[in-house]
């Protein structure tokens, strides 16, 4: 699978501790090897999948034909589903 660095992590880095930022970044990078890791959920009522990284959620779509993972949203669990 393909996974690129993206600018959405830059604003997040200002609000996260260094440890949390690294966990989110590493979780996203791991999606390149396994886009459906243990604990991921297919969303209902919204396109995509979800992984949990501490109190943060990463919403993403999988394009199996192109072998891509597309990050749709990243945020705190209290804000991500609004």
Walk me through the structure:
The protein has about 80 residues and is an alpha+beta fold. The protein has a single domain (about 10-75), classed as RelE-like (YaeB-like fold, 2-Layer Sandwich). Helix content is about 25%, strand content about 30%. It contains two helices and four strands. The chain has helices at about 10-15, 20-30; strands spanning about 40, 50-55, 55-65, 70-75. Strands 1-2-3-4 form a four-stranded antiparallel beta sheet. Strand 3 and strand 4 form a beta hairpin. The longest helix is centred in the first third of the chain and has 13 residues, at about 20-30. The radius of gyration is 12 Å and the shape is globular. The N and C termini lie far apart (about 30 Å).
Helix-strand pattern, N to C? HHEEEE
What is the CATH architecture descriptor? 2-Layer Sandwich
Number of strands: 4
Estimate what percentage of residues fall within beta strands: 25-35%
Query: How much is the average pLDDT?
Result: 85
Q: Reading side by side through the largest sheet, how are the strands ordered?
A: 1-2-3-4
How many domains?
A: 1
Low-confidence stretches: none
Q: Within the CATH hierarchy, at the fold level, what is the topology? A: YaeB-like fold
Spatial separation of the terminal alpha carbons: 29 Å
| Shape by Cα distribution | globular
Number of helices: 2
> Structural class, please?
alpha+beta
